[in-house]
Specification:
The protein has 173 residues and is mostly helical. It is 39% helix and 9% strand. The protein is built from nine helices and four strands; from the N terminus they run E-H-H-E-H-H-H-H-H-H-E-E-H. The strands form two sheets. The protein has a two-stranded parallel sheet. It has a two-stranded antiparallel sheet with strand order 3-4. Strand 3 and strand 4 form a beta hairpin. Helix 6 runs antiparallel to helix 7 and helix 7 packs across helix 8. It is elongated and about 60 Å long. The relative contact order is 0.10.
Length: 173
């Protein structure tokens, strides 16, 4: 990067912006003149920073789930630590739907489509059927409950994208 280049960062996860590296870049000299970090969505990047097409030379997106989110059971992303079935990137009640809402509210067909299209899950129909059957007895509240349902359908480890991984990862990632 050549000066006077500025790097703008936007993240839905407020906790990511509180990470020591982000804090250092946005508050300490000489970095704070070069870096600006804001809480928000990529879709609002231009309005968040007051940008026009001509004011930007390039954009770099990091649009994934971090190990920080996966390792914290309370976030609802973890496959190895039990927690509430949330999975919202910003983890705020203002975000309309949590994973719990979707898992317990979508029809079998909607769940199957969601798992197949977004999770690229080959066993999406079987998993959706098992979820709908389970929730007749009680709502699915935790990541462990969902993971156990998927394990019953797919086995302890199942083939997904040419590699083996924990079954919950294929079903909900």
């Amino acid at each position: 990067l050549l000066f006077p280049t500025r790097v703008l960062g936007v993240d839905r996860d407020i906790r990511a912006l509180q990470h020591p590296v982000c804090h250092l870049l946005s508050t300490e000299e000489p970095y704070k003149k070069l870096f600006r970090m804001e809480n928000g969505r990529f879709s609002t990047l231009a309005s968040t920073f007051g940008l026009s097409e001509r004011s930007v030379d390039g954009v770099l997106f990091d649009a994934g789930v971090s190990s920080m989110q996966l390792s914290d059971g309370s976030r609802g992303f973890s496959f190895s630590r039990n927690g509430p079935l949330d999975m919202r990137m910003d983890n705020l009640p203002s975000t309309p739907y949590s994973a719990r809402d979707l898992v317990n509210g979508l029809t079998e067909r909607q769940l199957s489509n969601l798992l197949f299209l977004l999770g690229q899950e080959q066993s999406s129909r079987l998993i959706a059927r098992a979820i709908c059957s389970h929730r007749l007895e009680k709502p699915i509240e935790t990541t462990e409950e969902l993971s156990n349902i998927i394990k019953k359908v797919c086995g302890r480890h199942h083939h997904h994208h040419d590699h083996f991984q924990k079954p919950a990862a294929g079903g909900v990632a």
